[in-house]
C-alpha cells in the first residue's frame, strides 16, 4: 500500500474554495476536465463583474516628493524658511527637520479639472483630466524597505505575497503564451528589498513576478539554446521535454505539498511556449518611428523608462495580466530619494519618466485599451515639507500621492487632501489596504474573500483592514 497520494486521487480530492476554482480552470484549459459554459473561467472576476482585466503599475522608488510634483502647497511659499516643525527627530527621519521649504518649481493648473502640477511634469500635466488622484495616501513607516513591502504586499515585513502574485493566484492568466505577472525593473538595479516586492510569499511559487531585462539583447536569458550547440535542435528539444515531463510528473505526484517543483515545471512549459510568442512581443522595433519617438526612445534620459513603458503596452495588449515598471534602483542616487537637493536631484529622475508616461496614457487611450486596463502611478511614501540639509527633503509617511487612470475610475477627480504643509493627511486618508482593496474590487474580487490558509491563519492582501474607495469608482 502506498503512503503517498496518487495523481488521480489528488485531482479528485482537490477540494473547494479558491484553490479548487483555480485548479479547475487550469485543468479545463489542459483538457483534463470540462468547464461549465456558465463559468466565467476566472477571466471575468471572482466575485462580481470586473471593470478591469489588466494592470500596469508604475512604481517610483525612493519616495517621490508630493509638494514638488502633484500637491501644490502655497502655504509653504508664505512660511518658507521658518522653523515650525518638530523639535525632536521623528522616528524614521534620517536627520533633524530643518525650516519649512517651498517648492523650487512653478505650479500651474491644467485641464478642465484644474489640477495643479509642477513644471517637473509638463507632459503628464496634459493628461490630468484622465487621472484619478489619491491625495492623502499614508504609510506606517518612513523607512524604504518596509515602505516598499507595505505598498506591494500590505505588510512591513518580508515573506508576504505581493499584489501581483495575489492577482495571479486569484484570476490566473489571460494567455498561455506569456507570463501572467511581469516585472520590468530599472536597468540601474533592483528596488529596495531586491526581488522581495515581486515575491509570491507563501502562495505557490508559480505566482511570483517574472523579471525581464527590457534593454538586454536577450530580455529572457536561456530562452533559446546557444548556436554553438548544434545538437540542440527543435526535435531534440521536444523529445527532451517529453522525457523530462514524465520524470517531473512522477516526482511531483509524491510531493504534492511542495509548490517549487510545480512552479519550475510550469516555468519551463511557459518558456517553451514563449519561444514562439516572446520574440514578437518583445520586439519593439516593429513599432512605428513616431510611436518610439513619442515614448522617448533614442533620448538619453527617457530611453530606458520609455522602452519599458512601450514593452508594457505590448505585453498587456497581448494579454499579460499585470505589468509592474520600476523607476529607480535602491540606494542613495538615481532614484526619487532626494535627500541632498530637490532642485538638482528631482528634475532628472522626473524627466526620465514624464514623457514616457504621457505617451503610455495617450497610447492606451487611442488603442481602446483603457476600456479594460488600469494604469497606476505610486511610490512608497512622500517627503517632508521641511528642508533637510540645505535644500533636500527627508522621508515622510504622513502623506503622499497616487494616481489611477483608465478603466473603472472617474477621470479628473481627486480624493482626500493633505494638510496645508503637505506633512500629514487631513481628509480621505488612504492606506495601502484601501489602495489594494480598490484595485481588487475593480478586478472583480472582494478583498475580504480572497484568502489563503497559512500557518492556521486565513491571510489576505489587505490583512484585517481595508475598504474600497467607492468615491473614485466610475
How much strand?
15-25%
How many angstroms does the end-to-end distance come to? 59 Å
- Separate helix tally: 11
Q: What structural class do the secondary elements suggest?
A: alpha/beta
CA radius of gyration is: 23 Å
Largest sheet: 8 strands, mixed
Series of secondary-structure elements, N-terminal to C-terminal: HHEHEEEHHEEHHHHEHEEEEEEEHEE
The percent of residues in helical segments reads: 25-40%
Instruction: Give the total of beta strands.
Output: 16
Strand order of the largest sheet: 6-5-7-1-8-11-4-12
Low-confidence stretches: 1-42
Mean pLDDT: 87
Global morphology: globular
Topology:
Elements: H1 7-12, H2 17-29, E1 54-60, H3 74-78, E2 107-110, E3 115-118, E4 131-137, H4 144-153, H5 163-171, E5 181-184, E6 210-211, H6 234-253, H7 259-282, H8 289-294, H9 303-317, E7 322-327, H10 342-366, E8 373-379, E9 382-388, E10 392-396, E11 400-406, E12 413-415, E13 417-418, E14 425-427, H11 432-442, E15 452-454, E16 457-459
Parallel strand pairs: 1-7, 1-8, 4-12, 5-6, 5-7
Antiparallel strand pairs: 2-3, 4-11, 8-11, 9-10, 13-14, 15-16
Helix pairs in contact: 9-10
Structure summarized in a few sentences:
The protein has 474 residues and is of the alpha/beta class.
Descriptive key words:
single chain, alpha/beta, eight-stranded mixed beta sheet, 11 helices, 16 strands, disordered N terminus
Describe the structure.
With 474 residues, the protein is an alpha/beta fold. The protein has 11 helices and 16 strands. It has an 8-stranded mixed β-sheet. A two-stranded antiparallel sheet has the order 2-3. The longest helix is centred in the last third of the chain and has 25 residues, at 342-366. The radius of gyration is 23 Å and the shape is globular.
Amino acid at each position: 500500500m502506498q503512503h503517498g497520494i496518487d495523481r488521480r486521487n489528488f485531482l479528485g480530492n482537490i477540494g473547494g474554495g479558491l484553490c479548487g476554482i483555480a485548479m479547475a480552470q487550469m485543468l479545463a484549459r489542459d483538457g483534463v476536465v470540462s468547464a461549465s459554459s456558465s463559468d466565467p473561467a476566472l477571466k471575468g472576476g471572482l466575485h462580481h463583474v470586473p471593470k478591469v482585466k489588466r494592470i500596469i503599475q508604475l512604481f517610483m522608488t525612493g519616495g517621490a516628493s508630493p509638494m514638488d510634483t502633484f500637491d501644490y502647497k502655497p502655504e509653504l511659499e508664505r512660511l518658507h524658511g521658518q522653523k515650525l516643525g518638530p523639535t525632536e527627530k521623528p522616528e524614521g527621519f534620517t536627520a533633524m527637520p530643518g525650516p519649512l521649504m517651498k517648492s523650487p518649481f512653478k505650479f500651474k493648473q491644467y485641464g478642465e479639472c484644474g489640477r495643479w502640477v509642477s513644471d517637473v511634469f509638463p507632459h503628464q500635466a496634459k493628461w490630468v483630466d484622465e487621472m484619478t488622484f489619491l491625495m492623502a495616501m499614508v504609510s506606517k513607516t518612513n523607512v524604504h524597505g518596509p515602505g516598499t513591502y507595505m505598498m506591494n504586499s500590505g505588510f512591513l515585513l518580508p515573506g508576504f505575497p505581493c499584489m501581483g502574485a495575489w492577482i495571479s493566484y486569484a484570476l490566473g492568466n489571460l494567455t498561455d503564451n506569456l507570463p501572467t505577472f511581469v516585472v520590468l525593473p530599472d536597468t540601474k538595479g533592483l528596488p529596495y528589498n531586491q526581488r522581495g516586492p515581486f515575491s509570491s510569499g507563501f502562495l505557490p511559487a508559480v505566482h511570483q513576478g517574472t523579471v525581464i531585462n527590457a534593454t538586454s539583447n536577450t530580455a529572457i536569458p536561456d530562452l533559446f539554446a546557444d548556436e554553438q550547440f548544434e545538437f540542440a535542435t527543435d526535435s531534440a528539444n521536444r523529445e527532451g521535454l517529453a522525457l523530462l515531463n514524465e520524470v517531473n510528473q512522477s516526482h511531483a505526484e509524491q510531493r504534492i505539498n511542495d509548490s517549487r517543483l510545480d512552479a519550475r515545471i510550469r516555468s519551463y512549459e511557459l518558456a517553451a511556449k514563449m519561444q514562439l510568442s516572446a520574440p514578437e512581443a518583445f520586439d519593439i522595433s516593429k513599432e512605428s518611428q513616431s510611436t518610439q519617438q513619442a515614448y522617448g526612445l533614442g533620448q538619453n534620459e527617457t530611453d530606458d523608462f520609455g522602452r519599458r513603458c512601450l514593452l508594457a503596452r505590448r505585453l498587456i495588449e497581448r494579454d499579460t495580466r499585470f505589468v509592474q515598471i520600476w523607476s529607480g534602483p535602491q540606494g542613495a542616487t538615481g532614484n526619487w530619494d532626494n535627500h541632498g537637493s530637490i532642485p538638482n536631484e528631482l528634475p532628472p529622475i522626473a524627466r526620465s519618466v514624464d514623457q514616457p508616461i504621457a505617451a503610455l496614457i495617450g497610447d492606451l487611450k487611442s488603442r481602446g485599451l483603457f476600456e479594460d486596463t488600469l494604469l497606476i502611478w505610486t511610490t512608497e511614501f512622500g517627503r517632508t515639507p521641511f528642508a533637510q540639509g540645505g535644500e533636500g527633503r527627508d522621508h515622510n509617511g504622513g502623506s503622499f500621492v497616487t494616481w489611477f487612470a483608465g478603466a473603472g475610475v472617474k477621470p479628473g477627480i481627486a480624493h482626500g487632501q493633505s494638510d496645508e504643509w503637505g506633512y500629514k493627511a487631513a481628509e480621505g486618508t488612504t492606506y495601502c489596504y484601501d489602495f489594494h482593496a480598490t484595485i481588487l474590487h475593480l478586478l472583480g474580487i472582494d478583498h475580504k474573500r480572497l484568502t489563503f490558509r497559512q500557518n492556521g491563519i486565513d491571510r489576505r492582501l489587505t490583512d484585517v483592514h481595508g475598504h474600497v474607495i467607492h468615491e473614485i469608482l466610475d
